[in-house]
Amino acid sequence: MDLIAETISHRFDALDVLDGVSFSVGAGEVVAIVGPSGCGKSTLLSILGGLLQPSAGQALLRGAPPPGCLNPLTFVFQDFALLPWASVEDNVAFPLLHTSLSAQQRMTAVADALRRTGLLDFRTAFPKQLSGGMRQRVGIARALVVRPAILLMDEPLSALDSQTRELLMEDFVDLLADGTMGAVYVTHNLEEAVRLADRIVVLSRRPGRIRKVVTVPATRRARGDAATRAQLLDLQSELWALIRTEAIDAEREVQHA
Amino acid sequence: MLDRTPDDSRHVARDADAKPVRFRGGGFTPATSRWAGLLALVAVLGLWQLIGSLALINPLFLPTPLGILRALYRLAESGALWQHLSASLLRILSGWALGTASGIVVGFAIGLWRIARSIGITFVSALFPIPKIAVLPLLILWLGIGEQPKIATIALGVFFSTTISVYSGVDAVPRNLIRMAQSFDVPFPTIVRKVIWPGALPSILAGFRITASVALMLVVSAEMIGAETGIGTFVLQAGNLMQTDQLMAGILMLSLFGLAVGKLISLLEARLLHWR
User: Fold this and answer.
1) Distance (Å, rounded) from C-alpha B97 to C-alpha B104?
2) How confident is the model at residue A241 (pLDDT cuts 50, 70, 90)?
3) Do A71 and B184 touch (CB under 8 A)?
4) Is B156 exposed, middle or buried (CB count within 10 Å of its CB: 0-12, 13-18, 19+)?
5) Cα gap B89→B104, rounded to integer Å
6) Cα angle: A177, vertex A181, A185; to 5 degrees
7) Which residue has the higher pLDDT, B214 or A217?
8) What is the DSSP string of B137-157?
């Protein structure tokens, strides 16, 4: 199943946020969206996920969803968006409550998602009892339980410390390895973008337009190697050079707002 | 260079000029001492009893704590206490239940639907500031001189506070949780039941504390205006007859009732909001 952004534009009242953004992401593909603050990355993701109506253009789905898929476009949120009154197990089961799955099928699906994210021993814990990294694992398990076609990840690691971020990036690489799921990965962090993405869409300062689409060399598995890391560092520098001036302008704009 | 000795003691050796850093982080911790409150209460009651026993103040104006307890015992023995207490409890429970149920329905409607919000907030803002006891004569005119106007007065007072706490609670539910549920295509009734209701519950239970006090105040006021039984009637009669020990026994009953309700709500919070 492919997700297509077709000349998406958006404005909030008088503020132009996005201008004619087009790209697509298919099964097994990860597209990172990077750009200066306020360029409309998260707005674009909300539009792609059907949570916001674009002012112009549209988000399209092409092809059949993978077998067993209950929610083709599934978000992983920056702030985890966990129900604080529900246990880990109940949080993961939440998207299944209204589906036609039997209680037994639901339990199996939840156990599988918990196993894949290493949360089986924490199934009865509540979010307040978990670290930030574990909370995001719950968010990921909740996304996996519906067997999505495309994951929409909105800065999923930005609220975490660098060590947890590194560990979760390794987990993402494993989860994406079977090639059935695609992902749109919005991030500020260029290191995350080059580690995880197949293509990186660089947006300009507001209104966000596509400045460049960069293809990342090497497979995701190979990107942990020392030789490839050097190559990725060069790519990271290249991306930073593209964004830096606009990032400075965007920061000043935010401060003066 | 990463090769360092683990003991960096040459930098930590104390010399004559070194002084400990002064601790500046104390205070401002909302902690309570377990016994201080109880000891203070016992001390005040003891002092009060002593003043009464030494006849420093006329018991007509300030009966002793033991005198009040004796009056309470006599009232319980004669059955008058239960008669008044049951009448007040019936009014409070009926009025509170009626006001709470309707307040929850209207509060949720205001919190969830734009039209209900526009209309509801206008009426709530206009009617909430009116002291509800002032409406009692009108309610007597409409409903007669039985139990209904007293129950309706309590229900009105409880309704407005409940409505406000419920729609404030609905407003305070983090929007990211609602967006999360929508992103999974969770239907509206399930979002209300599984996200908005539990999210608004802390505010709703906090509202219960307020409405319990409101109900208590209104029942006493309503009974003082027009009733033959009830704690309010009893307190007023005792005052008129200068039976100060009985008057204070009535006030003690009100205080104990308020404490019991507060404890009940705390238990409810501990059970329903354990996740906080």
Assistant:
1) 10
2) confident
3) yes
4) buried
5) 22
6) 95
7) B214
8) HHHHHHH-SSSHHHHHHHHHH
What mean pLDDT value characterizes chain B?
90
- The amino acid occupying position A162 is S
* Structure tokens given for B212: 């319990």
pLDDT given at position B234: 92
What is the H or E stretch that residue B251 is in? helix B244-272
Beta-carbon contacts of residue B152 (< 8 Å; ≥ 6 apart):
B95, B139, B143
For chain B, state the CA radius of gyration: 27
Omega within 30 of 0 (cis) for the link into A207: yes
Percent of chain B predicted with pLDDT > 90: 66
Give the residue-averaged pLDDT of B51-69. Answer: 90
User: Mind telling me how many Å the CA of B186 is from chain A's nearest CA?
Assistant: 6
Q: How many CB atoms lie within 10 A of CB A216?
A: 20
Q: What would the mean pLDDT of B22-34 be, rounded to a whole number?
A: 81
- Given a cut of 70, is residue B4 above it in pLDDT? no
Structure tokens at B25: 């982080």
Length of chain A: 257
| Interface test with chain B among A70, A71, A83, by most B beta carbons within 10 Å | A83
pTM of the model: 0.84
Place of tokens 């006001």: B99
Can you tell me whether residue B160 is helix, strand or coil? helix
Residues of chain A in contact with residue B185, where contact means CB-CB under 8 angstroms, are: 71, 98
Q: B175 to chain A: nearest residue by CA?
A: A81
Say if residue B35's pLDDT is above 90: no
Min Cα separation A9/chain B (Å): 21
CA distance A107 to chain B (A): 18
Residue appearing with tokens 């589906």: A99
Q: Do A81 and B180 touch (CB under 8 A)?
A: yes
